[in-house]
Amino acid sequence: MSETTILEARGLDKHFGHLHVTRSLDLTVQTGRIHALIGPNGAGKTTALSLLSGNLAPDAGRVVLNGRDITLVDLPRRVDMGICRSWQTSSPFAGFNVGENVVLSALAATEKRVRFFPRASADVDRNSFARSLLGDVGLTVDPSLPVIELDHGARRLLEIAMVLATRPSILLLDEPMAGLAPSDVRVVSDLLLGLKDDHGLLLVEHDMDVVFTLADEITVLADGAIVASGAPDAIRANPVVRALYLQEER
Amino acid sequence: MADPGAGITTVQAGEEPPPIGGRRMRRSFVLTVAVLAILGVSPLIIEPIGFGYLESTLTRVAILGMAAVALDYIVGYGGLISLGHALFLGAGAYASGILLFHLGDRAWATDQALIAWPFAMLVGALLGWGFGALALRTKSVYFIMVTLAFNQMMFFLFNSLEAYGGDDGVRLGARNRLGPLSLEDDRMFFYVCFALLVLAVVWFNILIRSPSGWILRGARDNELRMRSVGAVTRRHQLAAFVMSSAFVTLAGALAVNETQFMSPGISHWTQSGELLLMLIVGGVGSLVGGVIGAGVLLVLEEIAIGYTSDWAFYVGAALIVIVMLARGGIAGVILGRHRNV
Ligand SMILES: Nc1ncnc2c1ncn2[C@@H]1O[C@H](COP(=O)(O)OP(=O)(O)OP(=O)(O)O)[C@@H](O)[C@H]1O
Ligand SMILES: [Mg+2]
Q1: Residue A108: which of B213, B218, B239 has the nearest Cβ?
Q2: A227, B105, B223, B314: which sits with the fewest CB atoms below 10 Å from its CB?
Q3: Contact A91/B225, CB-based, under 8 Å?
């Protein structure tokens, strides 16, 4: 049994200087559903995700979690509330090896107070949790490898493991599968489907095959505004969306 | 409510935890022990080889080495470059020095090291808390400028203490007393400073491996990322700043004992720069590099002074060569990729 957690964007607006990148955005992320956010380059997908995760503040509008206004709640506090995001550009902690990156993420989510004892690496449960997460995302490399030695695909997988390490109830994933080998895409897709039941998922993704396989709901952004939103079949049939994507391919 | 983490993972019992730190630690451990051992035996061997005049220099290596190690915790592991740490040297000097100066004419005065030194550390921690909380509102170059401003502020404060000689400072009649140990004996005083240096090195090695130290290091690599997995980075940076301040203040208390002279000079901002220079030469982000840098800088200086009045030029030239040849400082060259975490 799991309660439904609902994260909502209500009329979010964001400018970068003269650039209006988010225009009265309404969006719902909810446990048990995968919500895909798609749109051409520069449509404002990452920005929308940043507004929900808390590392950008909106100019107007609200972010609401389970009925509570969390617009002013900062990034770390939102992680406490169960919201965690991944980054479009993989950026693991360079001074830590692969395993430590996951351990550090788990540690950051739980260590709210300043503690000097015991050693960070001494928590056996946390270490095996981290190791099992590496297995879950299908990252088979030696955990003691420095992160600079990881190739692009492995970094993407590590990125997901680091998000999972915070034990989120809502995951905001920014193009988690970009550049992954087909076999890895399958692993991650299965993982996300497995998480779906008790996690809310917002998935920014360019790969339409992935989107239409996974998503329960699709929102299409263009120029910061929602062009269409609804079930995958409806989106597939939507003439505006078709035009948008045909346009992009040209 | 269901555990959000459930279903993500199946923890297999008896599985090896990910290797953490292990192999990379060993080489830096050996280097740390070697450097401390060399410094520890130095006073015993410099006399026979004709460098007896370096004895007090070695004491200063232990003292300023401790300050550099403490500074490395925030610079090398926190990525927070402070150009204000000499203010804590001054704070330590004045906190313990004033207690000592009034011996005999004030009831609160004391020459007991076990009171004066912890008191100095407490003063340093409080100052570090206040200055750190303000400075940490800024980043990078602004952080450097703000810490520098605090340094100047305290420097002028010490200068204005007319009761303690103003900008001339005052002589202190004696050193602190530490139980049965006679700190008036230079050899004994060196070993007390050395023991505290060892303690500081061990302590900061514990800190860089602690949960808070990991978050500090993670924030150095990528602060936004660290916050996005839930860390309140500012809190851990402040804790690190306070720790660092407290130990630099202890070094200040030792320094005023070494010279038996309490003056604002010790807190001049160029002294902050010199601590940073020690780190750069010795190796930022290795802890023991602070000791190496203090050793190289102070010993080089002392020897050069003996040969030429243009010593500053030659020391400067030597430092440029070291920094050019040894990227990552001396410790960085020795450790290679096997850095101290
Ligand atoms: N910090 C910033 N400052 C100024 N402009 C920005 C900033 N971040 C994004 N932008 C601009 O806002 C617009 C939307 O960017 P955003 O990254 O949200 O798009 P996106 O849909 O994620 O694109 P992509 O598919 O390329 O990842 C772009 O034109 C981008 O150049
Ligand atoms: Mg993007």
Answers
A1: B218
A2: B105
A3: yes
For a pocket test of ligand 1, which of A14, A18, A19 has the largest count of ligand atoms closer than 8 A to its C-beta? A19
Chain A residues touching residue B20 (CB < 8 angstroms): 97, 99-100, 103, 120-121, 127, 144
Partner residue facing A120 (CB), from B210, B232, B337: B210
* Closest-CA distance of chain B to residue A177, Å: 18
CA distance A170 to chain B (A): 9
Give the residue numbers spanning the domain of B233.
25-333
Q: How far apart are CA B52 and CA A136, in angstroms?
A: 64
Task: Report whether the peptide linkage leading into residue A118 is cis, meaning its omega lies within 30 degrees of zero.
Answer: yes
Residue at B305 is within a domain: yes
Give the global pTM.
Answer: 0.92
Number of folded domains that form chain B: 1
Residue A22: phi and psi, rounded to 5, are -135, 125
Nearest ligand for residue A21 CA: 1
CA-closest residue to ligand 1 atom 29? A42
* Nearest residue to B28 via CA among B291, B277, B214: B291
* Residues A201 and A29: beta-carbon distance below 8 Å: yes
CA of A19 from ligand 1 middle (Å) equals 10
Answer whether A7's CB lies under 8 Å from A64's CB.
yes
**Residue B7 included in any domain:** no
Architecture of domain A1-82+169-249: 3-Layer(aba) Sandwich (3.40)
Per-residue pLDDT in tens (0 to 9) along chain B, 341 residues: 444 444 344 444 444 444 444 455 588 999 999 999 999 999 999 988 888 889 999 999 999 999 999 999 999 999 999 999 999 999 999 999 999 999 989 999 999 999 999 999 999 999 999 999 999 999 989 999 999 999 999 999 999 999 999 999 999 989 999 999 999 999 999 999 999 999 999 999 999 999 999 999 999 999 999 999 999 999 999 999 999 999 999 999 999 999 999 999 999 999 999 999 999 999 999 999 999 999 999 999 998 888 888 888 888 888 888 878 888 899 998 988 778 88
Token pair listed for B301:
């200086």
